[in-house]
Amino acid sequence: MRYLMFVKADERSEAGEMPTEKELTDMTAYNEKLVKAGVMLDGNGLAPSSDGARVTFDENNTPTVIDGPFAETKELVAGYWVIEVSSREEAVEWARRAPLGPGGQIEIRRVFTEEDFGDALTPEVREAEARMREKLSH
User: Fold this and answer.
1) Is 92 strand, coil or helix?
2) Looking at residue 110, which CATH number applies to its domain?
3) Could you tell me if 99 and 93 are in contact, meaning their C-beta atoms sit under 8 angstroms apart?
4) Which H/E stretch holds residue 118?
5) Can you name the residues that pair with 84 across neighbouring β-strands?
6) What pLDDT shows up at residue 31?
7) Whose CA is closest to 80, among 94, 66, 90?
8) Are 49 and 68 in contact (CB under 8 A)?
9) Helix, strand, coil in percent for the chain, rounding step 5
10) Tens-of-pLDDT digits for all 138 residues of the chain?
11) How many angstroms separate the CA atoms of 43 and 33, rounded?
12) Is 126 strand, coil or helix?
């Protein structure tokens, strides 16, 4: 099963404060453990929301762009990992080992697979998805 682990933003990350040398060293060691275990597929830190934007859609599907920064820091994401593990419990165990320190928070969410979509994923849509994924892998 594939899981996305979100690192929640805090005042430091939203202020654009970069990690210390020790924090980077600790995070690199953690990432190396994920890679050595064969579970890490991707992971990165994210710039603060002041560098970002949100696109919202109204009832007529008209998009509106809202430039950052965004007020609710606790709702923002500062980084992520994509991991492939055998269970939710294993994902939780990996998250528990992350070197985030006091106040750090990780949200874990399972990534849907084709099987989750049932009959709504028609053969035509499945084929189109396969073509796109093939292009992405090159």
Assistant:
1) helix
2) 3.30.70.1060
3) no
4) none
5) 2
6) 97
7) 94
8) yes
9) 40, 25, 35
10) 999 999 999 999 999 999 999 999 999 999 999 999 999 999 999 999 999 999 999 999 999 999 999 988 878 999 999 999 999 999 999 999 999 989 999 999 999 998 899 999 999 999 999 899 899 888
11) 13
12) helix
**Amino acid 74: pLDDT:** 79
Burial of 9 (0-12, 13-18, 19+ CB in 10 A): buried
78 and 10 Cβ atoms separated by less than 8 Å: yes
Q: Contact 100/45 with Cβ under 8 angstroms?
A: no
CA distances (Å), origin 124, targets 3, 35, 114, 134, 135? 26, 35, 13, 15, 17
- Number of domains the chain is built from: 1
Q: Could you give the residue ranges of the DSSP H alpha helices within the chain?
A: 11-14, 21-36, 88-96, 123-136
Q: Domain limits at 82?
A: 2-136
